[in-house]
Each structure stands twice: as structure tokens, then as C-alpha cells.
Amino acid sequence: MSVCIIYHSETGNTRTVAERLAAAIKGDLVAVRDLAGYSKMGMYLKGAPRAMRGELAAIEPATINVAGYEVVVVGTPVWAGNPTPAVNAAFKALVGIEGKPAVVFCTSRGMPGKTLERLQAMLAGRGADARGVVGFTVRDVRTGEGMDALVDLVRRSEKERVVQ
Ligand SMILES: Cc1cc2nc3c(=O)[nH]c(=O)nc-3n(C[C@H](O)[C@H](O)[C@H](O)COP(=O)(O)O)c2cc1C
Question: 3-159 architecture in CATH?
Fold first, then answer.
């Protein structure tokens, strides 16, 4: 199965989930970097209001070509109840996402707010074939809880695509 796992992570939780998923399904990882380079304080003072406004960050890589993949996964931290500006930008940066099975996940302290619905909306906006969303708490990241559900969802997405 060829899976592209795109994620943004500032403090490592979303990266941990992305790396575990990549190990489980042999996916390729794309780490998206917010070029704002926030300090810990800056994430709250500047990043969180930008996330609430649904802004798009300047990111690296600026283009993410997923045309050669069968399934796309996007992971984001929750900032003030929303996906991060880097992930908003990552959706815009995707090339070849149209019609492709896609799964999204977020990590948070347990209050994801509008994040999951925003992620679904961005997938729909890019014409992806949205297969589901999985939310992880920081505790889940520590214990590994929820990983099986995410791995199953990604595996099922690929199988269903082949059957169609
Ligand atoms: C600026 C900022 C805003 C946050 N807002 C929320 C929030 O609204 N709800 C929540 O449950 N957690 C919130 N968190 C916690 C993060 O979502 C959580 O620690 C996440 O796992 C961080 O992902 P990362 O380690 O991949 O950067 C916030 C963290 C930061 C830095």
C-alpha cells in the first residue's frame, strides 16, 4: 500500500502518531514546517489567533505532490480549537488529491473544538474522498491508544479503493 502521511508538529505529539502510522503501514512521511518559526509563547500569542481565523501559514515544502499515492493522511495539532495555519496551508499545497481516499487525525489536550469538522471541510474542498477522522489526546499519544483505529481506517481506505 502506498500512503503519504503529511503532518505538522511543534512539540512532537502529532509527529509521534505520524511516525507510528508510517511504521505500521510503511507509509512515507512529509513533515510540514511553519516558516514563522514560533517560540513557545509565540504559538499562543500569534499562532493560536491565526488558527482561529483559519489563516494559511508560509510552509515548507510549498508543494506536496500526492499523485503517486493510493491514500493520503493529514495530521494536525489542535490550536485554539482549530487545525494549525501550517496544516491549512498544506491542504492548499496538495497536488493530485482530487478523488483520492484521505484520512485525517489531530492531537490535542482533549478539546479539539472545530478541528475535526474543519479538517473534513478542507478535504471536501479539495475534492478528496474523505474516509474518516481520528482524534488523539496527549494521553492517547503516551499510551498508544487509538493507533489501531487509525491504522485500520487507513488500511480499509486502501482496500475499498481497489474494490471499487
Ligand atoms: C498554541 C496552542 C493552542 C492549543 N490549543 C488547544 C485547544 O484548543 N484544545 C486542546 O485540547 N489542546 C490545545 N493545545 C494542545 C495541543 O493541541 C497538543 O499539545 C498537541 O498534541 C500538540 O501537537 P504537537 O506536539 O504535534 O505540536 C494547544 C497547544 C498550543 C501550543
Answer: 3-Layer(aba) Sandwich (3.40)
